Amino acid sequence: MRLFSFSRRKTGPLPPPPIIDSADEPPQVTTLRTLVIVYDPVVDPTRGRKLSEYMNWNRVEDLAKGYMSDILQASGGLVRHQIVQRLDVDAFPAKVDGYVYDAQTYLNVMRGQARPYMPQEADYYAIIKRFEILQRVAKNEIDEVWIFNFPHAGFYESIMAGPDPFWCNAPPLKGTEAATRRFVIMGFSFERGVGEML
Question: Fewer CB within 10 Å, N- or C-terminus of the chain?
Answer without folding.
Answer: N
